Amino acid sequence: MALSPTLVRVPGTGELSLAPPGTPEPPDPTTPLPAAWTGLGLSTEDGVTIRRAVERTGTTHWQQTTPARFIYTSQEFGVSSVFQETKAVVLGAYFGGMVFAETAAGSKRYRAEISSVPKGDERALCVDWVDQISATEIYHHRLYVPRAEVSETQDAQWTRTQEARWGISFAALAPASGTTLAVWLTDDPAVLLAPPSGGGTLAIEETTQ
User: Of 51, 76, 107, 205, which residue has the fewest beta carbons closer than 10 angstroms?
Assistant: First the structure.
């Protein structure tokens, strides 16, 4: 049994960011995201939830009760969080691409319409988190999803005893080409099976049958 307490990672801080669809993959886990990306800001202390669900069906046989193989029927990969900043990028994602505009030039009054017809609002998505173990041991992680769309929103309750919260779940869409559904960039050597010499990249692929 190999126990390694030094390999425990704590996502101490981070942020989820959105960009227009087709925004290229960041070059590494530490370079600040370019201007195309907009951070969704503060979120509740629960942070970010990553969900991966693969459904499969086993073949059935007359001669045996154990499946000979599995047939993959679906895969879901999602990211969700509850955001605490009430601003354009958060409200736009929550309300399906809703955009505020000034009612008249210089009025400082803004208006947006919530459509009765739901429509797609595809984005590129990044989740950044950092584990700072000491002043010299700092590990960065960046999850990049090239195609994502809001799959679910939580009820938003407005009260005088709590800030407005916007719970949003994003689901990865099939890649435009190839099989890569998402990419994980990091400089953490713990992700490698052998002693590392540098950072690593992990690609999460679409399941195909």
Answer: 107
> For residue 90, what is the enclosing H or E element?
helix 88-94
pLDDT in tens, 97-135: 999 999 999 999 999 999 998 888 999 999 999 999 999
3-state percent breakdown (helix, strand, coil) of the chain, nearest 5: 5, 45, 50
The β-bridge partners of 142 are 128, 185
Other C-beta atoms within 10 Å of 5: how many? 5
Cα gap 127→47, rounded to integer Å: 11
d(CA 206, CA 171): 13
To which H or E segment does residue 92 belong?
A: helix 88-94
pTM of the model: 0.88
Taken in order of first residue, the domains within the chain and their CATH numbers are 5-26+48-205 (2.30.110)
Are the C-beta atoms of residues 170 and 148 closer than 8 Å to each other?
Answer: yes
Answer whether 162's CB lies under 8 Å from 180's CB: no
